[in-house]
Amino acid sequence: MKIEPSAVQVPVTNFDGLAQEGALRKHGNLFNGTSKRALVVGPSGSGKTNVMISLLTHPSGLRLENVYLYCKSLYQPKYKYLRELLTPLREIGYYEYSEDENIAT
User: Fold this and answer.
1) How far, in Å, CA of 78 to CA of 76, rounded?
2) Phi and psi at residue 95, in whole multiples of 5°?
3) For position 102, what pLDDT does the model report?
4) Are 83 and 68 in contact (CB under 8 A)?
5) Would you say 28 and 60 are in contact if contact means Cβ atoms under 8 Å apart?
């Protein structure tokens, strides 16, 4: 098989650098790119809640459209603080689930 170049060519631009330059940057300086998904998991007392609150509130942290919180103790002060912080923000969907709720739907 002989490969011949086409008479018509389309230039291909590398857009990888845009996020670093800030043109497509959504999150703070700590995170590259525009889209992030994460699960924060660990044993009790490992600092999961502190990490998430820090990532959500720090200027170099995450800028999310939705936050889903699944835990068995939504009454704790840190979760109350997170609820009071995020619920009034219309730009962010904040959803809480306790261990007795079915979240598969």
Assistant:
1) 6
2) -130, 125
3) 67
4) no
5) yes
